[in-house]
Amino acid sequence: MKALPWIGFFVAPAAWFGQHLVGQAVAQAGCSAATLSWGISVRTWQITLLVVASLLILASETAAVVAFRRTRDASYASPPPVGRVRLIAIAAMTTNLIYLVIVLLDGLASIVEVGCRQ
User: Fold this and answer.
1) pTM check: above 0.85
2) Rounded to whole angstroms, how far apart are CA atoms 83 and 75?
3) DSSP states of 27-68 as a string?
């Protein structure tokens, strides 16, 4: 149980950061004249990154909800470690939804937008 709130708290930002970083690299590589022969499909990469990051964030949210439910008899002001686990789970549940929206907006914009303009 001690790992669940931390998984819930740290996996979502890592998934967003990875999706954004790799997505930007793929977009830059797709626009480069040197990589035209590689046949990089930017849309395929962006869709894959969007799906993987979203699934990781949903798994992170699940871990946070499980940690929250396991500490339902306590308050976030309870003595450690139960109070801290509950507080971290509450923070993770809130921020994970924000990260999910960020990933969806970032991924959908990368899929729809035509990135290469000269």
Assistant:
1) yes
2) 6
3) HHHHH-GGGGGGT--HHHHHHHHHHHHHHHHHHHHHHHHHHH
